[in-house]
Q: What sequence folds into this?
């Protein structure tokens, strides 16, 4: 998943991994430092959850600083 910025650039945020259970997805954050993704836990403390939870978490981490 990526964010489309007003400048037209795209900012990678996270990847989802299907766990085999409908509505439950693994979550990996994008790491700009080495242009890769690393598995992570959601704010709930669980390693998997809904796509909305993953996008909210990544958006809060990466896009909040841009809004300031």
A:
């Amino acid at each position: 998943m990526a964010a489309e910025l007003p400048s037209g650039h795209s900012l990678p945020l996270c990847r989802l991994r299907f766990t085999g259970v409908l509505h439950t997805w693994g979550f990996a954050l994008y790491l700009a430092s080495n242009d890769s993704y690393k598995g992570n836990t959601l704010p709930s403390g669980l390693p998997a959850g809904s796509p909305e939870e993953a996008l909210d978490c990544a958006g809060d981490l990466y896009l909040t600083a841009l809004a300031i």
